[in-house]
Known about the structure:
This protein is an alpha/beta fold. The chain folds into two domains: 25-146 and 303-320, 3-Layer(aba) Sandwich (Rossmann fold); 148-298, Rossmann fold, CATH 3.40.50. 40% of the residues lie in helices and 13% in strands. The chain is built from eleven helices and nine strands. It has helices at residues 25-39, 67-78, 99-108, 123-130, 148-162, 180-191, 221-225, 249-256, 260-263, 286-289, 296-337, and strands at 56-61, 82-86, 113-118, 136-142, 169-173, 196-200, 216-217, 230-233, 271-273. The strands form two sheets. The protein has a five-stranded parallel β-sheet. Strands 2-1-3-4 form a four-stranded parallel β-sheet, with helices on both faces. Strand 5 (169-173), helix 6 (180-191) and strand 6 (196-200) form a beta-alpha-beta unit. The structure holds phosphoric acid mono(formamide)ester (CP). Residues 65-68, 141, 147, 150, 275-277 line the site of phosphoric acid mono(formamide)ester.
Amino acid sequence: MTLPDPQFNTMGTLQHFIDLQGLDATILTQILDTAEGFTGVNDRKIRQVPLMRGKTVANLFFENSTRTRTAFELATKRLSADILNVDLVTSSTSKGESLLDTLNVLEALQCDMFIVRHSDSGAAHFIARHVSPEINIINGGDGQHSHPTQGMLDMFTIRRHKGDFSKLCVVIIGDIKHSRVARSDIAALVTLGAGEIRVVGPRTLMPADIESLGVVIYPTVESALKDADVIMGLRLQKERMKSATVPSAGEFYRTYGLSPERLKLAKPDALVMHPGPTNRGVEIAGSVADGKQSVILEQVTYGIAIRMAVMSIVMGNSQAMQSAIARNQDNTSIEVTS
Length: 338
Ligand code: CP
């Protein structure tokens, strides 16, 4: 038996944002278009809109983060909501409190939305199935499974620079196997109709099922980069590796590193992307990361607008759902009392 997608409420709108797999092009485009509107907020004198005034968002990061956690915090503040950065190192999880008990405590403290990063693939799905129906869950990265807001900010960056996805050749290089970003990017690129998606990396770091997702495996970085429009580098995600099947940093750079010489094989206006954190001299040369084709820091900036878009959309859907329930209850009580 397949369970219904927990991202959708009974009205069929997005209640949670957990995985790009299963979301259609209409939803992805709505997020991109909404984020486009929010980019202007960053340039205003008062960088705030009142869309989530009175709401409380809890940042629950069970794994380290710089970009995602801070971008969610800024997005929350720009939407005029309160943010609670739960310090999990000093929280009662260290005394053995379970994940669900921690969430129950935060629900009792009247949090409305949880941003969750966790090392276990499926953690965000699990939480979404257990919280109260009015709560929104946003996945800030779960294990090697999914990083949907990173996927969307990558699509936003590409669309801003290149427009139409159908003409693009996108190359993803490196540790595909342990990369939740690669999975989210591939899902979004396929849904948005990218012309060609190529992946290349060590055989030990290539998932067995990857071609079934709609990508083509290339044997060498040189062949993969030929005529590419977009190049995405990925770091070796050692924290998720269980065995020593990885080349050394030097070996990896020699075979797969995005060097200035290799970059010349792509189109002259190819975008250089990386979700970060970057390891210079391993998956990418410092001069390429800082070079004129690099949009790595733009990706970080667009992360605020994308997160504002996702948060306001799920919150709006949730409020519409609660209003519909309340209307229904009113009608029912009128029927009963009349
Ligand atoms: N891209 C990304 O998830 O970066 P952080 O780990 O710094 O959040």
